[in-house]
Amino acid sequence: DLLKTARQEGEGTLLSPLSAALALSMAANGADGETLDQFREVLGDGASLEALNVSCSALMKLYGGLGGSTECSIADSLWLDGRLEANELFLSRCTAFYGARLYQADLDTDGARRAVNRWVSEHTDGMIPEILTQNLESHIALLLANAVYLENAFQSPFSANATGQWDFTAADGTVTSTDFMRQTADLPYCSADGVTGAVLPYDDGRLAFVVLLPEAGLDSWLAELDGEALTALIASAQETRLFLSMPKFTAAWSGQLNEALSAMGLAVAFDQNRADLSRMGERNGNFFYLDFVIQSARLEVNEEGTRAA
Q1: With contact defined as beta carbons under 8 Å apart, do 185 and 156 qualify?
Q2: Percentage of the chain with pLDDT > 90?
Q3: Mean pLDDT confidence for 45-58
Q4: CA 67 – CA 206 distance, rounded (Å)
Q5: Is residue 36 a contact partner of residue 55, using CB atoms and an 8 Å limit?
Q6: How far apart are CA 165 and CA 159, in angstroms?
Q7: How far apart are CA 142 and CA 78, in angstroms?
Q8: Are 70 and 152 in contact, with CB atoms under 8 Å apart?
Q9: 191 pLDDT exceeds 90?
Q10: How far from chain centre, in Å, is Cα 288?
């Protein structure tokens, strides 16, 4: 749903739903009333706030215990303006369930912007060197940040000697000479109405890289896709002898998610006249609303595996 609502038709979009969910789940702990109800519905299909926190905490522990050569880092932080009177229960939930580190700074300064960017860069192995391109405005009282870094090795790596240049045809018909990785291997292969794909397991035995090729183009296929259909498609994969050819590439994207999240059902949190984020605290007698949600993502795919942040 996040991809469908955030993506502009015909444009490449790269998102981490995990990163977005963890940051927004921290924010949910500061919500009340209708605002909290919308957080619960969008993030947990109506689950209680307690269940959402426990689920996120368990997910972070799960990702922290992967085997093989996988490197996985998930970090959360709260940046509090010096004039903020924060709610202690809100802070304690963010630290207890999400392992969030607390920082205090004058958020509208160059120093705060540099400090946030430095924190993001450190926790993404330098893949995301900057998330804030300009100083925050003076009305910002609190910044919630999540950083995810994931480095994986394919269980069946490609041979660098087999990589060569072939034509890649984009959705708009543009043809570009592109480095393609090639291998013949026994891999899980899936096929359904309008799409084929392969599952490339990582050497941790837990995670995998899924490559899908919609026959009629991404836009029409994505419009009909939902989580259950995607899960069923991947689960249906049968090990098959494949000749697999796929691009070696780096992709990056950054953008604001306000409109997408509002369309998904989180509209009240962005409305300064209706939002109830009173459980976060207050500043000068004023309560809060979500001003912006931004994400920056990067993915590198080569013969050995993938890096993502």
Answers
A1: yes
A2: 87
A3: 97
A4: 8
A5: no
A6: 14
A7: 7
A8: yes
A9: yes
A10: 24
For residue 101, give every residue at least 6 positions away whose Cβ sits within 8 Å of its Cβ, in sequence order, or none.
Answer: 75, 76, 77, 78, 95
Look-up: residue for tokens 């899980």? 188
Burial (CB < 10 A; 0-12, 13-18, 19+), residue 152, is buried
Contact predicate 149/125, CB 8 Å: yes
Residue type, 108: D
Contacts of 133 (CB under 8 A, 6+ apart): none
Name the pTM for this structure: 0.95
User: Computed from CA positions of residues 252, 292, 25, 140, in that sequence, does the dihedral angle turn out positive or negative?
Assistant: positive
What is the rounded distance in angstroms from the CA atom of residue 49 to the CA atom of residue 266? 15
User: Do residues 112 and 79 lie in contact, with contact meaning Cβ atoms separated by under 8 Å?
Assistant: yes
pLDDT tens digits for 138-189? 999 999 999 999 999 999 999 999 999 999 988 888 999 999 999 999 999 9
Instruction: Please give the average per-residue pLDDT across 44-54, as a whole number.
Output: 97
d(CA 244, CA 203) in angstroms, rounded, equals: 18
Report the DSSP beta bridge partners of residue 242.
Answer: 185
What contacts 172, CB < 8 A, 6 or more positions away? Answer: 10
pLDDT at 75 over 90: yes
- Looking up tokens 């990056």, which residue turns up? 252
Please give the single-letter amino acid code of residue 224.
Answer: E
Runs of H (alpha helix) within the chain: 2-6, 17-28, 33-44, 49-64, 88-98, 110-122, 218-224, 227-235, 258-261
CA distance 133 to 117: 9
Beta bridge partners of 295: 255
Q: Which of 24-28, 81-85, 246-250, 296-300 has the lowest mean pLDDT?
A: 81-85
Place of tokens 């309560």: 287
How far apart, in Å, are the Cα atoms of 74 and each of 59, 99, 115, 124, 129?
10, 9, 18, 9, 16
User: Does 10 have pLDDT greater than 80?
Assistant: no
